[in-house]
Specification:
The complex is a heterodimer of chains A (about 425) and B (about 450). By secondary structure, chain A is an alpha/beta fold. In chain A, about 45% of the residues lie in helices and about 20% in strands. The longest helix of chain B is centred in the N-terminal third of the chain and has 37 residues. In chain B, strands 1-2 form a two-stranded antiparallel sheet. Classes of the chains: A alpha/beta (about 425), B mainly alpha (about 450). Chains A and B meet through helix 1, helix 2, helix 17 and helix 18 of A and strand 2 and helix 7 of B.
Amino acid sequence: MKKYLALLLALCMVFALAACGQAAAPAQEAAPAQEAAPAEEPAATGTLKIWVAEAVVDFTKEQVASFMADHPEYAGYTVSVEPVGEGDAASNMLMDVEAGADIFGFPQDQLARLVAADALIPLSDENAAIVAEENDAGSVAAATMAGTVYAYPLTSDNGYFLYYDKSVISDPSTLEGIIADCEAAGKSFYYDLRSGWYMPAFFFGAGCTLTYDTDDSGAFTACNIDYASEAGLGALKALIALHKSPAFVNGSSVSNATNAAAIIDGTWDADAAKELFGENYACAKLPTVEINGTATQLGGFGGFKLLGVKPQTDETKLALCDDLALFLSSGDVQLARYNVVFWGPSNIAAKADPAVQADEALAALGAQLAFTVPQGQYPGEYWSLAEALGDDIIAGKYDTADDAALMEALQNFQDTCISYAG
Amino acid sequence: MDEKKRGNSGFLKWLGNDLKDIGQTFVRGDWKTKLSFLIMGFGQLCRGQIVRGLSMLALQGGLLYFIFGFGWQYLTKILTLGTVETHREGRVTVYGHNSFFILLYGILVIVAVLALIYLWRLNLRQNRDAEHLLSAGKRLPSNKEDLASLFDKNFDKTLLALPVLGIFIFTVLPIIFMICIAFTNYDVTHQPPSKLFTWVGLQNFKELFGIGGTGNFGGTFFYVLGWTLLWAFFATFLTYFLGMAVAILINKKGIKFKKLWRTILVLTIAVPQFVSLLYVGKMFAVDGLVNAFLMRWGWISTPINFWANATSARVLIIIINLWIGIPYTMLIVTGLLMNIPAELYESARIDGANAFQSFRKITLPYMLFVTGPFLLTQFIGNLNNFNVIFLLNQGNPKSLELTNNAGATDLLVTWLYKMTINDSNYKIAAVIGIMVFIVTAVISLIVYNVLPSVKDEEGFQ
């Protein structure tokens, strides 16, 4: 009897193990498909998967349904819409291209990674022409690499500007004034200086550049950077001075801010900021800051959300993907999307809509956009390198450093940035 | 060196004997045995051992089909890991070779070949033994007896067959695969299915140790390794001794509400670490609770950024870990304390020993003896304590002095995680995985061999 019990237990163990193995199964199943893929035969049926941010899943479903109703030629395809955050979408696509979605939304800083992993198919010439004509120049540039358009712009609102509390900040036009008001009121000024995205506000504002050149395979060929310069030194000193202020708190998320009077953040936090500041809610372009003795307007990145199409092995499905992605990024849909989730459109016609024009946060972003550069492509290592520089500033490593030591740190940063290219 | 030589010659001798045995089986065997060299199970079938014969034949057929029908296409490419790149015909994508699957299935096929060789050898031995039995005038075991033996003499094999298979597929195969990745250039610029990766020998190891690599990879690796060991040491022994102290304190005669104190401490176990650690991490932020209270009480005028500085972040992590770790040790030690015979303490007291002396001479040796293996597993667990580090501060702060996303409180495992998830740097991550294994294996073996509980099993009987 004992023996059979033992056998039973052993069997249970195996099933338990098999259950653990479930997650690995799709990868193995993918193998035969992999081999069969090149010899495909045209079939007008199939499935198509879309990944979009949680907030727009229902909206996207509705739009897809109306698209499918207008296009009976694709009736054989079933389209599923799944909630996958934009940052995750890019990582998931890189992890396993074949299991990934056919159409997916992603932030444009992921473009180079996705192109390098061949997770994006370039737009057809007709679609590229339509996209270039209907969207603002910055968003088209963000979707373009080495002259090829790889994605459909969805939004033109991935930038940052100043949210502030009218009752505390009397004049949001200079950083010195904001800091003084915050200190006087015992409130905090939030800015994320340990971030490759927010930190350039100081450096770009001071007149520095940091861009990368890429070739058409998504590889980085050259880095154009001049942080180790008089202007860069001034920007770094301004950052150090900011970190020394007791009112400074590192951060850029309204929902994590506990004692904020001013915060540099983006449109995605507009609702949270309204809630935090209540009737004292106000927005403005970024302030000026004293760099090397002159008041300098802070710069920064203009960023965009994009919609990409995965390389396809089936011609009909590719056509469907192209048409659907073009539709989902069209002006009408962008405007409809703005009305539902307030994502600032990149489409020129949608931007001109009165409802969009009246949005306070988008207006502040629009004012700031004049001082920003469209965000190009940066290697993944750059973002962690910038965090490292930010951490060193916050840890106080440069608090007492002289100009020579600061210049050495900037030179080190610059050399490391250059080493990522080529 | 000598031992290795002996090992080598031992293996060669075994191989020689085995080959000789195979030859003798062929030369001395009858035609049934001879044909079994080609068709496995033939001899058994002819001699009426249908079950053995059929299973051998089925296994041979299955494995050969797997090797040639499925695996051959992968096996032939395993030296290059594929040569045909993914390309586009018009706008339609044509996928080329997939290095990932070539490596994975290639390994599987190699294992299948080894299994086939083993079964073939087993098949020969069965034939030889059957002939010996027959020539000695004995009866061969019948089919019924063969089957019955699976639930009697060979019951261990029956029991273990499926678990071993499961462990092989879900544990051993992935480990072999990961070790192989360490010798390839599988990284962000070589990602299947669109890009190929290939063998690069020891290149990744050289890069990690800073030989001929770019940046400060070697320095960063040893920095992270140093902190990993330091952390494991403090995390293990501080929680151990403080937990013991708390347990002894609560256990002391005259302490009231013993159960209440224990319950309060155990509450930290009741809240999942995912929740409590994330929350505590936030509490110590610049705008967190701790700073807010310190400022309200007027102890500090400006907030302290605990997580910004390498030293303060490290100290804080160790302290927070104490808060989580002490209750566990306390529970274990409380149970053990009650096991120490009270007479020992009594006679110590009569001999004039003070409290500290009886702790040092009675309690501590007993504890170390009983909890030695526990301490070892704690230490190894702390070397790989992903949760505490990652949930508290993600291994930050970073610094320009470190490369590849590493931070001052990163352990090797959290660094490995960042490399795979953020940077898709699978090749170096695989090398670090091997390094983690070496570190844990060396420490385990050394410590295990000097543990009193292993050396002297009867010590406290």
